[in-house]
Amino acid sequence: MMNKFKRLAACAMAIAMVFGMTACDEGGASSAGSTADSALNGPGSTSSTSMATTTDPDENADTDDEAKDLDTGTFTPDGKSGVVKYLGFYDITDDQKGKEQCMIFESDLYGGSIEWVSAPNDYAYYEKLATLIAADDSPDILTYEAMAFPYGVSKNMFEPLDEYLDINDPLWADMLPFIEDNVYNGKHYYFPHRVVTSFALNYNRKTIEDAGLDDPYDLYMEGTWTWDAWRQMMIDFCNLSEDNIGFYATDTIATAFCNTTGKAVIDYDNGTIVNNMNDPDITRGVEFLADLGRNGLLYAGQHGDWVSPQIWAPVSDKILFLGMEPEWTYIAATEEIQNPTGVDNDIFNTPSDFAFVPFPRDPQADAYYLNNGTFGYMVAKGAKNIKGAIDFIYCNRLFETDQNIIDQVRKDHVDPEIVTYTAGKYQGIQKWQITWDEKVYDLWREVCVSDKFEYVTDDLYGFGQDVKTNVCTTVYSSTFGGESWSQLSQQTIPLIDSVLDEYR
């Protein structure tokens, strides 16, 4: 679904060695530590999270952190939301994207509670969902993942929400383009509550300074952050030492980079599907990345197949750019340095040196295009507590639109109040919280929703495993290994179209 509009104001060894391997545990930063650009999720997904890296269970003890006051003027809960079963590969009640919303939902205001049902975060995720539905043991909610639409919806795995949510309600006005993008057979299945950026180029500002390079943030602000500027910066960095690496990313990054041309590799729009694999702009994007590899700028397995933010953080003086979702990367990398196991060595109230910039602008494009996505919840087919699920969806949307909370959340990021343990062996001791650099935080929000950009949502990852495998693991990886994208894509397009035809 290619959203060419300005937002309303308000895995094979070849790919492992050339572009990084998409780890099987990607998708949410639970105990495995992972990213939004997984084989399951793809760039359209936003299930990345920022769980603690610690293995000390006492660091998850109760604190004096309190739920925020929520304006319920546009939706007043009745305090009887009940138990909502959540199927997922991480616990949303202890996650940066959902903890505070869950605290509100579990207060007397809603009278709800979240029961986490653990699931794997690969394609087995949908297998487990199908098994639970067949056994009449459906969860109530799931986070939206790229394969949910249209694949999961077409397999009757989700409930349409038109009966419960009014698409004309002003509460959803900013989300309307995304809601309409997820229409299947005339029904709406997904009402996201926030827009996010799926990918960015993460870096260490100290590494940039020590190398004598221009800060990418400054180039972005000056309007000179382009493909060519990015490539030249990596060349200059790699020329300083044979141990230096320009760029690490997983295979799915290629799609997000190609989206800066203004094109989606596969575009689904209310039943109309366009396969752009042989489009000249997509070809140009893939060949640009392949040329980075031919010039020795891409990661070649020096630190293992899978480089998470936690692995990258201590070697970010050697890997200039990490291509991953910026919110999770910033938090996880900072946490790796500032919040080791235990509390004795925690670093408080100090922004880290980590930062990010959006993907560079295509100098041939007619606008600054970025890949984006959304975050939200869907209701599983056969859910027993749909009422509670709808209450939870409303709770999350109200949290995103309440200006008082928006202001509080920004302060929580850049100037967090002290939170103290109230139980466990650390009782009375300050709990570590990340302190964001203000420029990094404001850029993160700008990249998500700004009139500086035109946004593209790519549907490559919504049609099941075969499409993703054929395009990413086969064609991308072979191109980066030296073969011709044009030739390989021509060979693969009939295979992809045979799958897409099932949805036309």
Read across the widest sheet, the strand sequence of neighbours is: 2-1-3-14
* CATH architecture group name of the largest domain: 3-Layer(aba) Sandwich
Number of domains: 2
Structural class of the secondary structure composition? Answer: alpha/beta
Strand percentage: 5-15%
Task: Give me a quick take on this structure.
This protein has 504 residues and is of the alpha/beta class. It folds into two domains: 13-33 and 202-371 and 452-503, 3-Layer(aba) Sandwich (D-Maltodextrin-Binding Protein, domain 2), CATH 3.40.190.10; 57-196 and 373-434, Periplasmic binding protein-like II (D-Maltodextrin-Binding Protein, domain 2), CATH 3.40.190.10.
Explain this structure.
The chain has 504 residues and is an alpha/beta fold. The protein folds into two domains: 13-33 and 202-371 and 452-503, D-Maltodextrin-Binding Protein, domain 2 (3-Layer(aba) Sandwich), CATH 3.40.190; 57-196 and 373-434, Periplasmic binding protein-like II (D-Maltodextrin-Binding Protein, domain 2, 3-Layer(aba) Sandwich), CATH 3.40.190.10. It contains 17 helices and 15 strands. Strands 2-1-3-14 form a four-stranded mixed beta sheet. Helix 2 (99-105) packs across helix 13 (386-401) and helix 16 (465-480) packs antiparallel against helix 17. The longest helix is centred in the last third of the chain and has 16 residues, at 386-401. Mean pLDDT is 86; it is low at 1-18 and 20-53.
